[in-house]
Specification:
The protein is 57% helix and 0% strand. It contains two helices and no strands. Helix 1 packs antiparallel against helix 2. The radius of gyration is 18 Å and the shape is elongated.
């Protein structure tokens, strides 16, 4: 009996999972005061935005992987 090869994941799944890591990897890139958003310094609102971006990125990666695995 031949062994069945498991399906390969699309490369986009890996990119979506690594994206939040690279977005927050170097704090020197976003450790600044301006531009402010509703008087909140850039350093804080940038990191807070990544909470939602990470959830969106991970969700998209999950959907791509689960559709591909069927």
């Amino acid at each position: 009996m031949l062994a069945r090869k498991p399906p390969q994941r699309p490369k986009l799944v890996y990119v979506l999972l690594v994206l939040p890591f690279f977005g927050l990897l170097w704090p020197a890139l976003y450790s600044m005061d301006a531009p402010r958003l509703w008087q909140i310094p850039f350093f804080y609102w940038y990191q807070f935005a990544w909470i939602f971006l990470s959830a969106l990125s991970t969700g998209c990666a999950y959907l791509l992987d689960s559709r591909h695995g069927r």
